[in-house]
Design goal:
Number of helices: 6
Strand content: 15-25%
Shape: globular
Structural class: alpha+beta
Strand order of the largest sheet: 1-4
Largest sheet: 2 strands, antiparallel
Distance between the termini: 26 Å
Helix content: 40-55%
Radius of gyration: 16 Å
Length: 115
């Protein structure tokens, strides 16, 4: 059994991650292959506060009993995307966004299960 809320918090604290499946293996390699693959899928879809983007190249990764040929997925916080677009969270555009400039606070609230 895995504490998925704790895993999501751990991932959020680790962002950006260049290869989500490799990060899962390094951080949670004690889990069964099926669990790692389910988490890999779940962390890419649904209501997640990060964006995942597959690489154009493929990579092989050995788990316990299977070898996975996959496109490594980079995971980046939506906050980092805005900061990259604006130069920083304290840029004039971010300041003009007002409450939206505080996406980091919203992200942490989301991870804590707040509404």
């Amino acid at each position: 059994m895995v504490d998925e809320a704790a895993l999501r918090s751990h991932l959020a604290a680790s962002l950006p991650v260049t290869d989500l499946l490799a990060w899962l293996k390094a951080s949670y390699g004690h889990l069964q292959d099926a669990t790692l693959m389910r988490l890999f899928h779940d962390l890419q879809h649904g209501d997640v506060p990060w964006q995942t983007t597959p690489a154009s190249t493929t990579r092989q990764l050995d788990l316990h009993a299977i070898r996975v040929l996959h496109h490594p997925h980079e995971a980046v916080c939506h906050c980092a995307i805005i900061e990259t677009m604006n130069g920083s969270a304290s840029s004039p555009l971010a300041s003009a966004l007002g409450p939206l400039a505080s996406l980091d606070a919203l992200f942490r609230l989301f991870l804590a299960g707040g509404t």
